[in-house]
Amino acid sequence: xxRSVVGSLPLFSRPxxxxxxxxxxxxxxxxxxxxxxxxxxxxxxxxxxxRDRFLPVLPHLSRPYHAFPLLAxxxxxxxxxxxxxxxxxxxxxxxxCLRTQDGGAVALDWVSGDDRRLPPDSPLLILLPxxxxxxxxxxVRHMLVRARSKGCRVVVFNSRGCGDSxxxxxxxxxxxxxxxxxxxxxxxxxRYPNANVYAIGWSLGANILVRYLGQESHNCPLxxxxxxxxxxxxxxxxxxxxxxxxxxxxxxxxxALRKIFNKHVLLFEDIGGExxxxxxxxAKSVREFDDALTRVSFGFKSVDEYYSNSSSSDSIKHVxxxxxxxxxxxxxxxxxRGIPREDIEENPNCLLIVTPKGGHLGxxxxxxAPLGAxxxxxxxxxxxxxxxxxxxxxxxxxxxxxxxxxxxxxxx
Length: 412
Description:
AB_hydrolase_4_sf, globular, AB_hydrolase_fold, Rossmann fold, 2 domains, short-chain carboxylesterase activity, eleven-stranded mixed β-sheet, 33% helix, AB hydrolase-1 domain-containing protein
């Protein structure tokens, strides 16, 4: 199962803009007069090797970050408020279950009617939710709605067991496993060969996405990507996750993991080996769950080895795809000290924006606060639209024409 310190916090989720004149002169002036590697802008930390390329085309950053009063007084209040009370846009989805080469399955949720509404070369966005998250999560739905309003085709990638995705083998997913990501990208790029394809990941989804970008490097078929609330260094994240109030998140996420596991526990009945099925079924922490199941499933000798080898901080230096990283300095689950600033600064394809507040998957700020879309959504779309306007050419996909995919369709 996925690296659990970095989740979408579905445990707190309910069941299922005003445009501002952009003044590039202001941004250019700021950049010219800064001697350090990072640009100091109103309310933000901004750095990255792609700063000069991307900063002038992000008008959302020309306005100071104003967190919503009272909610932003405490990072935990903002995190929990966003998960409990943020509105969930109503969108009709069409589910496609993609059978993977190892016999597993993931669920892809497309917006119903988009095949009739959009031309086949429309930009395509793959959305990767956080741990145990899926297409029903508020932050995913808001991004989906905004992207559609800009003419994008959108698909939500629900990992094994997440968002009611089927589980057909005794293996879930993890921060270390990129096989499903490769097959999903291959599938969607093969279906829409004339479209530029982008990906947006949150939390665990961001960690998986950045690791994918790094491993694919020069052969990556994506035209751009956005990482939000990425824990980056899972060892650091794990250390912080077991301290103070974060223990509440740990207990809640382990409960969500147990719920998914126990729903499919019969698949593991005769598995043997180092698996500790009773511990996984009753895990009181994410670390216990990962030690009992995840690290064994993916061949690691210890849970610490699993965390160390699954961190996306090690992948940044290899990323060749345009990448925007957005973090909150007070994120309780994705620690500020774990951000690989030096590697981002040295990579000519990366830009990092750090807001002073935001919590984890919160960002209750901007024109739509407190119940509407996160502050980050307009910024993400500015970035995607810029890349699309530059007509970034999508490389040929590495899909295997001989692979057998079993597809199922279901209206949800």
